[in-house]
Prior knowledge:
Blueprint: H1 4-16, E1 29-32, E2 35-38, H2 43-58, H3 77-81
Antiparallel strand pairs: 1-2
Amino acid sequence: MAYLEWRVQHNMTQRFEPSMSHFKDGKKIKIRKDVMLVMAEIVYDLLQLTAAATFIMQTQPWRLEVESWKSFVNVDRQFLDELADEWWM
């Protein structure tokens, strides 16, 4: 399946492109393959941005879904750096 990972990332990026201004021009969300990382300093902002990202991913055409069980809330950079590689693939 050549370019499969690239196509998934490209599709996700295209979905978020019209709404990137709501994510501080991409500084509050990062997309890598089929993973999106939503970041905020305040829990309330994180809730709003995560709800917006979920809405964007699950609106028509609906091909992808958000797996909340792989989510982390209130973690710092050190925690993310220490995650096993399996969480990033």
